[in-house]
UniProtKB/TrEMBL annotation:
The chain crosses the membrane at residues 20-41, 72-94, 106-131, 164-190. This is DUF4013 domain-containing protein. Signal peptide: none annotated. InterPro entries: DUF4013.
Length: 208
């Protein structure tokens, strides 16, 4: 946990974090252009996975960010968009069933457990997918459901603290969710990459 906190503060104290936060936070609110955030996060994850250092990407690297967006869009759809959509539909159906049974309290709580479960598992799955994508340069391996799930489940316990920190920052910063999401996502990616490859000494040094 102490190492996780050090990673977070190292990122938040990085040169240029203020400018990156301002641009990233504002982009969050702009439809269509906010997809550039996926490219930015992908470029950040690529640097960490390939041990290229912890320097934050520059927003001036527009072409490289666009290229990274194209590269990560498929894993993002497979491991975030589709699971959340299916969990939301399932939660809606269960909620409707509870309403029919006049169990409104369960409709507002228990029925949304599938969404909570996906919220816990999907980000580590996406990071596992990106690790396979950048290490093996293969989209096919990044969307291999069995391989990614097996890789993630074996390391899921180590991902709990980064996930709790991520959602905690979002909760505290909800009034300025765009900026909170940017501040929370950078350390989340770094921490998940660190804990999901703990035996890779090259990943821990000199990057972490």
């Amino acid at each position: 946990m102490e190492n996780m906190e050090k990673v977070t503060w190292r990122i938040w104290e990085s040169p240029g974090i203020g400018r990156s936060l301002l641009i990233g936070g504002l982009l969050f609110y702009v439809p269509i252009l906010n997809f550039l955030l996926l490219g930015y996060y992908g470029r950040w994850a690529r640097r960490l996975i390939l041990r290229e250092g912890m320097d934050l990407p520059e927003w001036s690297e527009g072409r490289k960010i666009l290229e990274e967006l194209v590269r990560v869009i498929v894993p993002v759809v497979v491991w975030l968009a589709i699971p959340f959509a299916l969990a939301g539909l399932l939660g809606w159906a269960i909620s409707g069933l509870f309403h029919l049974l006049y169990l409104d309290i369960f409709a507002a709580t228990v029925s949304w457990l599938p969404v909570a479960l996906v919220a816990l598992i999907a980000p580590p799955c996406l990071v596992a997918s990106l690790i396979r994508l950048y290490r093996n340069n293969s989209i096919r391996e990044s969307i291999d459901v069995h391989g990614v799930l097996h890789f993630t489940i074996n390391r899921l316990r180590r991902c709990l603290f980064p996930m709790l920190q991520f959602y905690g920052i979002l909760a505290v910063g909800w009034p300025l969710i765009g900026f909170a999401a940017f501040l929370a996502t950078l350390p989340l990616l770094a921490q998940l990459i660190l804990v999901m490859r703990p035996k890779d000494s090259g990943l821990q040094s000199p990057v972490f």
